[in-house]
What does this fold into?
Amino acid sequence: MKLVTWNVNSVRLRLEHLQRLEALWRPDLICLQETKVTDELFPREAFAALGYAHLAVLGMKGYNGVAIASRRPLALVRHQTWCGRDDCRHLIAELDGIEVHCLYVPAGGDIPDPAANDKFAHKLEFLDAVAGWFAGQDAARPMVLVGDFNVAPLPTDVWSHKQMLKVVSHTPVEVERLAALQASLGWIDAVRHFVPPEQHLYSWWSYRAADWAASNRGRRLDHIWVTPPLAPRLARAEILAEARGWQPPSDHVPVMVDLA
DNA sequence: ATGGTGGATGCTCCA
It folds into this structure.
């Protein structure tokens, strides 16, 4: 089973990109974040034409929004809300007995101080709540947790560890929170399973660079994690960096894992 | 130290 996660930054603007992605990787399952569309206006026909007739969508007007597109029928579709907000960040479905979680963690604003920045406080509370919830689940079940986690955990998941320590997405307090979430079920980072920690990896490049590829100041914010029962099935993982150059681009690129 | 861009919306918010 080949599965992809991608923060598309508006699904309606990225339909041709999704067509390219399908042609390139032929994924069985595509998990999307920042769809930025209500469920009524979700472009279902375009997905059906690509072979994804089975959709789970959880969207709102303008902001956030997650979706799961599948070639085969999805079971037990449901969603979760966090921190008392109904803001379309967590969608769940099952395929082939695997429970798939599509998650969009709050970005957290610019100031990395929860006392001065409500968005950063919300991000930390969100990560704590999700970690607490998963800690009560059964790690012996085959589960996949994917999405835009908005945290780059390793020093090599950012272009400069030292210069990013006070930048939201790579501060120690966020990295600790994400580590606690990872520990909740002993989640395995499926991409790092194949790539040594010395090697830099990015899945996001800012729009605010004159030349994203030349400056290459990226961050790895998008992740695919699996529970221990799925570890023996990890066959391949890829980050499609070239998609950052597809016009007009999302600032995130697709991340893929193949489960044997 | 600063500002830089892009998307959805509608005279601004969020990333």
About this structure: The domain at 2-259 of chain A is CATH 3.60.10.10 (Deoxyribonuclease I; Chain A). Residues 9-10, 13, 34, 36, 61-64, 107, 109, 119, 150, 206-210, 248-251 of chain A lie near DNA strand B (CB under 10 Å from a C1').
